[in-house]
Design goal:
It is built from six helices and four strands, in the order ααααββββαα. By secondary structure, it is of the alpha+beta class. The chain has a single domain, classed as 3-Layer(aba) Sandwich (SMI1/KNR4-like). The protein has a four-stranded antiparallel beta sheet. Strand 2 and strand 3 form a beta hairpin.
Length: 197
């Protein structure tokens, strides 16, 4: 963990810590510990120590794969103006139009990939695996389980791969053959085709 944090800080210091695409506007200032604790209180669970240190010591999002990490609270947001906490809350909402939808407790969307896709970290798993949320092939009324795809085995592995310039979909292809079984939870609206206008 220490070498990862050190490399992120080093890249930030020399101006090379950024997202693959600058859409979200670059790195945001780190959060105070009290702000991270507020986010955890809203979420109802603790975020991984590595992620906490990144938000507190490096940046509140703005770097990483594709459009980069969303801010935890504030900072870079998605096209709907949502940070990670806001997106998680939205994904946990009920939607009577799609009763098959459920978003797993503790699955925090952190990496904005575009086209309604996100890399998420499973915060209530000690290994902190990265799950790729891919809603675009989903058919309304069907199970969403196939949209939650195992990617990197851990948050640390995922971030090291990005720092090494590796493509996540090629690097973690074998792990991506496994889909997690999302717990029945509260539905949301990740796919516009499943929503009323």
């Amino acid at each position: 963990m220490e070498d990862l944090i050190a490399e992120l800080k080093g890249r930030k210091a020399n101006g090379t810590l950024c997202a693959d695409d600058p859409l979200l506007g670059g790195c945001a200032a780190p959060l105070r510990q009290s702000e991270i604790e507020s986010a955890e209180a809203i979420l109802g669970f603790k975020i991984p120590v590595l992620l906490r240190r990144i938000y507190a010591e490096v940046a509140n999002g703005g770097f990483g794969y594709a459009y980069g990490l969303l801010g935890l609270l504030g900072g870079p947001r998605n096209e709907d103006g949502l940070d990670s906490v806001g997106l998680y809350q939205t994904f946990r909402e009920l939607d009577a139009e799609d009763p098959a939808w459920h978003w797993p407790h503790g699955l925090l969307p952190i990496g904005h990939l575009g086209c309604a896709m996100f890399h998420c970290v499973q915060c209530n798993d000690p290994k902190q695996p990265i799950i790729w949320f891919e809603p675009n092939l989903h058919e309304c009324g069907q199970s969403w389980d196939d949209s939650f795809i195992q990617s990197a085995s851990s948050l640390e592995t995922y971030l090291h791969a990005w720092l090494d310039g590796k493509d996540p979909f090629e690097t973690f292809a074998n792990e991506s053959q496994q889909s997690i079984q999302a717990e029945p939870a509260l539905p949301a609206h990740p796919n516009p085709d499943c929503r009323s206008p």
